[in-house]
Amino acid sequence: MAGGPDRVRELLMQVWEPARAKALADAQVLTRMLNADGINGALEPWDWRYYAEKRRKAEHDLDETALKPYLSLDAMLGAMFDVANRLFGLEFRPIEGPFYHPDVRGWEVTRQGRHMAVFLGDYFARASKRSGAWCSAMRAQRKLGGEVRPIVVNVCNFAKGAPTLLSHDDARTLFHEFGHALHQMLSDVTYPLISGTSVARDFVELPSQLYEHWLDVPAVLDRHARHWQTGAPMPVDLRDRLLAAATYDQGFATVEYVASALVDLAFHEGAPPADPIAREAEVLAEIGMPHAIAMRHATPHFAHVFAGDGYSAGYYSYMWSEVMDADAFAAFEEAGDVFDPSTAERLERFILSAGGSRPAEELYTAFRGRMPGVEALLKGRGLQDVA
């Protein structure tokens, strides 16, 4: 979708400058905390997370163990399905297996009585499963040779419990992968090769990252984030502290990510560097990498760099998609309703159902009326007012 490295670099640098400024300001605060502990000298990368966590507890007083009882897997599945129903009219009916593993759960997805998909959820870690989370289509939607509706599976690695209680990050992962699943389930194209998530790498994360936004809608949390034992809603004070902490330490998070993306991009421009580590150091010096922050992925284990044409030079795509998802969610906010029917209809028609039938830039412009800017992303990360 980006078309070329210059356009990618322009986007990343629009985010890099305010993120770096915020990270440097945060580094000053953490350095004062370090010095108050009697440690002289500069803040080092191995100091950052320790002091950032101390600062987070002091400023936000947010304990993940207090959140988890309100974020059971069943409650978050209910929230996930409820949002899909309110946006797209989808209904989810549990179905019995047998499936490929006893832990797998299944649902038939319908809309106004029409069969749309079969959705499977494989949520628990086990020895035979690789780590991570992903979405796969066991059968893609197509119209060629007759209508075929998809069979879609979300795979996660949550710790199985009775009940299974999720962290906020776990719940975000659940919503993220279901955004990919919606891209498959709502697909409405002729050819399977352009069905669902068969789109440009820097466009495929738009539906998934966009869907994450609804997890943190206060009305969704109030309705579904309920204590697994008592059924009581999450206390408003706890909910508000959760939402207030959403932008905490985003200077650090954005800097470590964008640095990796820029190094990945540099590795694939021109001739391969004879010494990748030396090239990495050059790039970090050119952009003014803060001393106390390391790249998110050190080059020797940066799998994206070596993953072939699917991912190499493509690490930027998460940020590219996040610019779009922040801008796309802003369309709902501008409509005055995060479940606005007209905006949801455009999202389905031009993004979720269209697959790779048209260039991604055309599809996004048809949905939004223009291409996105970085303003919504900077606001969402708390970076918009950084000088």
Give a concise summary.
This protein is an alpha+beta fold and 387 residues long.
Q: What global shape is seen? A: globular
Which strand-content bin applies to the residues?
5-15%
The total number of structural domains is 2
- Indicate the CATH architecture of the largest domain: Orthogonal Bundle
CATH superfamily of the largest domain: Neurolysin, domain 3
Order of helices and strands: HHHHEEEEEHHHHHHHHHH
* Tally of individual helices: 14
Radius of gyration from the alpha-carbon trace, in angstroms: 22 Å
Strand order of the largest sheet: 1-2-3-5-4
Question: Main β-sheet, in a few words?
Answer: 5 strands, mixed
Helical content class = 40-55%
Gap from first CA to last CA: 30 Å
Tell me the CATH topology of the largest domain. Neurolysin, domain 3
Extended strand count: 5
Helix vs. strand class: alpha+beta
**Low-confidence stretches at least 5 residues in length (pLDDT < 50)?**
none
The CATH class assignment of the largest domain is Mainly Alpha
- Rounded mean pLDDT score: 94
SSE arrangement:
Blueprint: H1 5-36, H2 45-60, H3 64-67, H4 73-88, E1 91-95, E2 105-111, E3 114-124, E4 134-139, E5 151-158, H5 168-185, H6 201-212, H7 218-224, H8 236-244, H9 250-267, H10 276-287, H11 317-334, H12 341-352, H13 360-368, H14 375-380
Parallel strand pairs: 3-5
Antiparallel strand pairs: 1-2, 2-3, 4-5
